[in-house]
Amino acid sequence: MKSKTRQKQVVIKGQATAPGIAIGRAFLFKPFEINLAELNSTAEDVKQEINLFLAARDKVMDRLDFARKQSIDSYDDQFSQIFESQISFLNDPVLIDEIRTKIKQDNYSAVYAVSRILSQKSDHFINLENTYFRERAFDIIDLKQQLLLALLGIKIDYHLTAPSVIVAENLSPADTINFNRNFILGFLTDHGGYTSHSSILARGLRIPSVVNGKQLSTIITDYDELIVDGFEGTIIINPDKSTLNRYAKIKKEHEKHAALLESLNKEEAVTLDNESITLLANIEFAQEVNDVIKYRADGVGLFRTEAMFLEKSRIPNEEQQFKVYKKIASGLSNKPFIIRTVDLGGDKLMEGYTDKSEQNPFLGWRAIRYCLDNPEIFKMQIRAIIKAAQYGTVKLLIPMVNSVGEILQTKEYLAEAMQEVREAGAGGTEKIEIGIMVETPAAAIMSDTLAKYVDFMSIGSNDLTQYTLAVDRTNSKVAKSYNPFDPAVLELMHITITSAKNNNIPVSICGEFAGVQAAVPLLLGMGLRSLSVAPHTIPVIKKIIRSVNIESCIKLYEKIQTFHHASEIEDACIKYLNKNIPELSFS
Amino acid sequence: MIEETLLVQNKHGLHARPAAHLVKIAGKFKSEIKIFKDGLEVNAKSIMGVMMLAAEPGSEVLLQINGPDESDALNQIKELFDKKFYEE
């Protein structure tokens, strides 16, 4: 191993494409660059060039067939399909003939003919609008590279001598599958996304993967110590000792978590005294419906629709939205699917739509306020939701409601949207449940009144904490005062839960607080029977639920009501967990 | 020579697998089988060609068949489109 002078830790953000934590040395993978200009472009002996080409084709075919078989054994269908389609290209008589003709008629060398023809094909695909077809360009580019390497007799060394994090500009399917996989700790690529080959493989292998979008492969060098956080999308180069320790701990937790998942997935979320708790999932992408099913959530308690708007920086049209909602609704097979209407404004700004000059954006033109002022956008979303509602149990959730007036105005728009869908003959639902987020002190205090106008309520603990304590948690000067365990916040949550109960409507909590392990017994003690959390946290939350009884949770809540400080309450809750579930050791 | 416009009705359009299915059927016939879409002309016996059409669900393609078994070929290909490539 090369010895290096100790360098300063560098933290970089990327996109997490497969969960998990990897800690290890970097292995920089650089694809072999073929310089076509240096190669002979004309065939000396046409017949020999054709034979060379056919031999290279057979060689690559064998390799692809092997990769396909291997991928069927170990990974999902998606992966073997890539090889399957590459094999079908090599078997395409028209394509093969085209290359052969190029050699014969234009006197091209085999390398030149392959390169020329396949580049033409990939250029065609890369300009297509549809993502699926556009991505086929990479399969063809990869196929070309493999044929050229075979023609030139070059073998690439994929042999890892030690467990490593693979760092590359881009990884082709063949590259990805050729590394000895027992030694792959994680993937870090400059290009790609959730559906790129290395991401799919990483999820199949249960190792983390992060895509950065920048030239990381030029910054990182071989043997650099790396941490890849596939939960948060964080990359740390040359981590310092305390960071390493912190991540080693997170990694251990994750492994414990994975073991828990195995053992708990089939169990129900019931307390020791047989109280059944509803566990819902918070999601923001259609593909996450797979996680909802994998972790056996009771439904989706919160579908955030902002990502759909923000990722393309334009308002998705009715049809685009409908497709996404329909996909999730159908995937959930009648389990509840709660869609929150778009929460734009605040820190979620859209050029040309929201107002970025506001002095207090979180007290400004956001969420339901923004929607009520933009009925075209609001009603378009509602229409898409109504139409999708025929494919499942879809409900509508309105963010940041403060008053009865806002609910009534929303209902008017809902009625209009229903009329419009009916007139268009688009076959939507005739009745849809409507609920509100309780995330301002006003809504919590007035929850008994608001409850009379809606079908359900959901506590948004993040904003409720921020607005109750008047603390911006992204402002480091005051962030330490942001604590959902604060007695003021808990009191407002309790008022909301009691109001829902008195009015006989369901209440849930969908903020981050529901996923805070120490908060779970407290929330049960306060009377909540439904929690909506990030899908991957479901196993551990379930474990907590299965380890406590409601009576003692109520006692815990009674006890903390005598405390005056957020920190005392939090400590008591952690202590409670450690006492009741020592095997998890919380801190 | 016969021609017919066909509607792509399967879930994902002419993705790799449905395209392979089409190519397999087209390959059984002696006739020359061409597909036209958006100004592009491809050979139905070529998987690369069929994929290059990037035919999405709801799109239309024009089929042109020329040869001794053309009506048979048309019927079988039409059935494949109508049965949504036997996907579901």
Question: Brief description of this entry?
Answer:
By secondary structure, chain A is α/β, with parallel strands linked by helices.
Number of E strands of chain B: 4
For the record, give the distance between the C-alpha atoms at the N and C termini of chain B, rounded to a whole number. 33 Å
- Largest sheet of chain B, if any? 4 strands, antiparallel
Taking the alpha carbons of the first and last residues of chain A, their distance comes to 37 Å
Strand content of chain B: 25-35%
Biggest sheet record of chain A: 8 strands, mixed
- Shape, per Cα inertia axes of chain B: globular
Order of helices and strands of chain B: EHEEHEH
List unreliable stretches of 5+ residues of chain A. Answer: none
Radius of gyration of chain B using CA atoms only: 11 Å
Q: Domains counted in the coordinates of chain A: how many?
A: 3
Which terms summarize this structure?
heterodimer; A: 587 residues; alpha/beta; Glucose Oxidase, domain 1; Enzyme I, Chain A, domain 2; TIM Barrel; eight-stranded mixed β-sheet; eight-stranded parallel β-sheet; 23 helices; 16 strands; 48% helix; B: 88 residues; alpha+beta; Histidine-containing Protein, Chain: A; four-stranded antiparallel β-sheet; 3 helices; 26% strand
List the helices and strands and how they pair.
The complex is a heterodimer of chains A (about 575) and B (about 90).
Chain A: E1 10-13, E2 15-18, E3 21-29, H1 46-74, H2 77-90, H3 93-106, H4 110-126, H5 131-152, E4 164-168, H6 173-178, E5 184-189, H7 197-205, E6 209-211, H8 216-219, E7 225-229, E8 234-237, H9 241-264, E9 278-283, H10 289-294, E10 300-304, H11 306-310, H12 318-331, E11 336-340, H13 367-373, H14 375-388, E12 393-398, H15 404-423, E13 433-438, H16 441-445, H17 447-450, E14 456-459, H18 461-469, H19 487-502, E15 507-509, H20 519-525, E16 530-533, H21 538-547, H22 550-560, H23 566-580
Helix pairs in contact in A: 1-2, 1-5, 3-4, 4-5, 9-21, 12-14, 14-15, 18-19, 20-22
Chain B: E1 2-7, H1 16-26, E2 32-37, E3 40-43, H2 47-52, E4 60-66, H3 70-82
Antiparallel strand pairs in B: 1-4, 2-3, 2-4
Helix pairs in contact in B: 1-3
